[in-house]
Design a protein that fits this description.
Radius of gyration: 22 Å
Number of helices: 9
Shape: globular
Length: 437
């Protein structure tokens, strides 16, 4: 197998401004400088003409790049912002509904140079960078393969089910039909050469070139998040109801089987209200700076955290985020917890409506103006017994908790674990296999 290309959706808008640092070509003509493309009557207006799509190819990919203006990063998260970003490879502009979308096409190993530096600090330990290179490559190729199979079999992928009294929704591949992956946290952070790259990242990519995680002859769906909160979550509690043997419930420590059953409410409550020992239970600023980029370091509490809402705030928040009027919020009741203590079925009890929602990201987005750090939380109500005056949410971890825990893996790297040991800790029984040279 030769190194494949990847198509990455970067940004969308009714108009997109971009520039070329060196010469690019389109339809045999050379272009450079600054440009703006605009959506007009369902077509792309550029340079005085209209097109169904445009693709600009670098004359020399090694020393050429293009820049996109005002790319939004951290979409819907607490640190969302815009920045100009530069990318190697080709630029494709397509029409998607009422917007234009900019797609970057480039070789996968070139893509990974940026992903590793965008997902964490490029100063992380070499063994952590190598482990992350393997899982990022594995996840990407697994998503491309999954999309190919769905297309070939004409299988409908439905990430949402609604029944009387229950809404279950997960967020995965459903938004991306015209490219392989997006550039934001919905998939993997990819910020082009804006975040690329140190010599250590290049060494990690070269040392693991073409290496992926396999299980039973299939690519592993190798997920990762910032902090598991002490115990790993299982795949089916966050996405489609499929169990992967390599994604097991384990404690993020040198004693991985030493943890209580966090699907039991009393155990989950005790676990979350305390701060048990785990690799990711660290406040070591030096280690955290290796894992977290500057905007991630704005989050100071992630292993254990707290948010509070008064009745007016939570009523308005749930109504705006869910699009449904629950009335005043009476209670938030965990119905089902996963292996990490994360809630994947939550009953919202209101004066006008009661409904169970899931899975974890739907819960997180409903109970926060951006997203709660995780759905592993317990709720304390204060004030009036009928309609509480205040809700205090105390939680554990940052992200979905499935697969590699980035902060835990960073601590493992500092403790001297090599990248194969790190991968085996988080992906039990999976094999590292070289897929291409």
């Amino acid at each position: 197998m030769q190194q494949p290309n990847v198509k990455v959706g970067i940004m969308s808008g009714t108009s997109i401004s971009f520039s070329f640092a060196k010469d690019y070509t389109i339809d045999g003509k050379t272009v450079g400088g600054s440009h703006t493309a605009t959506l007009v009557d369902g077509e792309i207006e550029w340079n005085g003409n209209r097109y169904p799509s445009l693709e600009f190819t670098p004359v020399n990919i090694a020393d050429s790049h293009f820049t996109l203006i005002d790319v939004t990063i951290g979409v819907n998260f607490h640190w969302e912002r815009k920045e100009n970003q530069s990318f190697r490879g080709s630029l494709r502009l397509i029409v998607e509904g009422d917007k234009l979308t900019a797609v970057n096409i480039l070789p996968i190993e070139e893509y990974l140079l940026s992903v590793i530096s965008s997902e964490m600090s490029a100063t992380a330990s070499l063994e952590l960078l190598k482990a992350h290179a393997v899982i990022s490559r594995s996840w990407l190729l697994a998503q491309i393969d999954k999309n190919k199979q769905l297309t070939e079999t004409a299988t409908a992928y439905c990430p949402c089910t609604r029944t009387d009294g229950e809404l279950v929704r997960w967020f995965d591949r459903e938004d991306h039909v015209n490219f392989d992956v997006c550039a934001d946290d919905h998939c993997q952070r990819y910020q082009g050469i804006t975040r690329e790259s140190t010599e250590a990242v290049r060494r990690a990519i070269e040392a693991t070139w073409g290496e992926v995680l396999m299980d039973g002859g299939k690519l592993c769906d190798a997920r990762f998040s910032k902090s598991c909160g002490g115990v790993f979550e299982e795949f089916e509690n966050c996405w489609e109801p499929v169990h992967h043997n390599y994604l097991q419930a384990r404690r993020d420590s040198a004693n991985p089987t030493d943890f209580p059953d966090l699907t039991v409410e009393e155990n989950a409550r005790e676990w979350i209200l305390n701060a048990p020992d785990a690799f990711c239970n660290t406040h070591d600023a030096r280690i955290l700076s290796q894992v977290l980029n500057s905007y991630d370091q704005e989050t100071t509490d992630f292993y254990r955290w707290k948010v509070e809402y008064d009745q007016e705030e939570i009523t308005k928040l749930v109504r705006e985020r869910s699009g449904e009027d629950y009335g005043n919020i009476i209670d938030l009741i965990p119905v089902a917890r996963g292996t990490s203590g994360r809630i994947y079925r939550l009953k919202i009890v209101g004066t006008r409506k009661t409904q169970i929602i899931g899975k974890e990201l739907e819960i997180r987005r409903t109970l926060s103006p951006s997203h709660l750090y995780s759905s592993a939380f317990v709720v304390e109500k204060q004030g009036n017994d009928e309609i509480p005056d205040r809700f205090i949410i105390r939680g554990a971890g940052w992200g979905h908790g499935v697969g590699l825990c980035q902060i835990g893996a960073a601590v493992m790297g500092e403790k001297g674990y090599n990248y194969n040991q790190i991968l085996q800790h988080y992906f039990v029984g999976a094999n590292v296999t070289k897929l291409y040279q």
